[in-house]
């Protein structure tokens, strides 16, 4: 039976913006009036998650259908319904918008909002190409407002903890990432593990979207990512392993939005082969989503939207126009690698 190792130095899972001394944790209460662009299912779950954030006020919702916007507003306590996006964006009662429309119109809606002087949180994937993403960030810079890429897992405590372990060299140099799910989520884990300066020197992809397949990405210094793209329906494991020279991090199922991770740091690696088949000691960390978040019929762990929303409130209170959990550099880096893989699918 595996022994429990001494505790890994626990960062207390302080959000990155707070741990860097950039924000005040109390500023989750910083008042922001949100406008919601799109009245679909993901917007419903975003709005319900935001209700657990003290400073969040959902002031408006836009849909091209007046009836749909009105029904959404009445159902979820939104102050005003709009079927004209320009009218909502012109309102002095909106500070920031959440873009919950389909990806193909993310750029159009985001740039409209940015040019109206509104901060923007855009649902992932940010847009359909790297060049479009650069246009969106240029509009944000021109108007001196936030454009936050909605890569929500990066704000989860388990991901904050994993990043801390990687950056503190607790598991040594990262050699390998193994993950299964879709290209977007597996690749965001790869970019977390290897950092924004690592670009693949070779990519091999197999399988056709939306079916099963996979990719092998080679990085400099003999480092690799082995990714499996799953098929529906199937009982896929959805676990991410980040393997280093000193230890290993396991983001447990569902690894794309995990609430637990397991850390293995043995006295010597590889533990079984160097220690008479003795398994590595393990330590598990569990970070359940706060029970204050009530989202009926939520997608898996979608209540975790709360972590991203809280970070945006803290950052804007401190006049920061990006969140350090996933900033512009992270966003463009992921976009570049993602589209390098998708062109083969």
Quick overview:
By secondary structure, the chain is α/β, with parallel strands linked by helices.
CA-atom Rg in angstroms? 21 Å
The helicity comes to: 25-40%
Number of helices: 11
CATH class of the largest domain, named: Alpha Beta
Instruction: Please identify which CATH superfamily of the largest domain we are dealing with.
Output: NAD(P)-binding Rossmann-like Domain
Largest sheet, in brief, is: 8 strands, mixed
Count the beta strands. Answer: 14
Count of distinct structural domains: 2
Rounded average pLDDT: 95
Spatial order of strands in the largest sheet: 8-9-10-7-11-12-13-14
Overall spatial form: globular
Beta-strand content: 15-25%
- What low-confidence regions span 5 or more consecutive residues with pLDDT below 50? 1-9
Strand-and-helix sequence, N→C?
Answer: HEHEHEHEHEHEHEHEEEEEEHEHH
Question: Your description of this structure?
Answer:
- By secondary structure, the chain is α/β, with parallel strands linked by helices.
- It has 2 domains: 20-151 and 307-331, 3-Layer(aba) Sandwich (Rossmann fold), CATH 3.40.50; 154-292, Dihydrodipicolinate Reductase, domain 2, CATH 3.30.360.10.
- Helix content is 32%, strand content 21%.
- It has 11 helices and 14 strands.
- It has an 8-stranded mixed sheet, covered by helices on one side. A 6-stranded parallel sheet has the order 3-2-1-4-5-6, with helices on both faces.
- Strand 11 (240-244) and strand 12 form a beta hairpin.
- Helix 6 packs antiparallel against helix 11.
- It is globular, with a radius of gyration of 21 Å.
- The N and C termini lie far apart (43 Å).
């Amino acid at each position: 039976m595996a022994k429990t190792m001494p505790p890994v130095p626990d960062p207390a899972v302080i959000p990155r913006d707070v741990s860097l001394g950039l924000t005040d944790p109390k500023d989750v209460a910083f008042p922001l009036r949100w406008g919601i662009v799109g009245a679909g299912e993901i917007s419903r779950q975003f709005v319900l998650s935001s209700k657990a954030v003290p400073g969040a006020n959902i002031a408006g919702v836009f849909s091209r259908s007046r009836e749909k916007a009105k029904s959404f507003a009445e159902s979820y306590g939104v102050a005003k319904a709009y079927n004209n996006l320009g009218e909502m964006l012109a309102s002095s009662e909106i500070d920031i918008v959440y873009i919950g429309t389909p990806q193909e119109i993310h750029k159009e809606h985001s740039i409209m909002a940015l040019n109206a002087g509104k901060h923007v949180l855009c649902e992932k994937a940010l847009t359909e190409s790297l060049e479009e993403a650069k246009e969106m960030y240029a509009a944000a810079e021109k108007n001196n407002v936030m454009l936050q890429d909605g890569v929500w897992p990066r704000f989860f405590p388990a991901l904050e903890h994993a990043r801390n372990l990687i950056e503190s060299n607790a598991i040594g140099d990262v050699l390998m990432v193994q993950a299964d799910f879709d290209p977007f989520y597996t690749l965001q884990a790869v970019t977390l593990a290897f950092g924004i300066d690592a670009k693949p020197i070779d990519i091999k992809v197999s399988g056709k979207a939306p079916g099963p397949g996979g990719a092998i990405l080679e990085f400099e210094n003999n480092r690799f990512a082995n990714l499996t793209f799953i098929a529906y329906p199937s009982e896929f494991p959805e676990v991410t392993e980040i393997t280093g020279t000193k230890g290993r991090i396991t983001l447990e199922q569902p690894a794309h939005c995990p609430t637990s991770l397991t850390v293995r740091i043995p006295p010597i690696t590889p533990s079984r082969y160097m220690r008479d088949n003795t398994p590595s000691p393990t330590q598990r960390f569990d970070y359940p989503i706060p029970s204050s978040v009530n989202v009926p019929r939520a997608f898996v762990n979608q209540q975790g939207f709360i972590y991203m929303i809280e970070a945006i409130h803290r950052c804007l209170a401190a006049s920061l126009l990006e969140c350090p959990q996933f900033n512009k550099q992270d966003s463009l880096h992921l976009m570049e690698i993602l589209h390098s893989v998708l062109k083969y699918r």
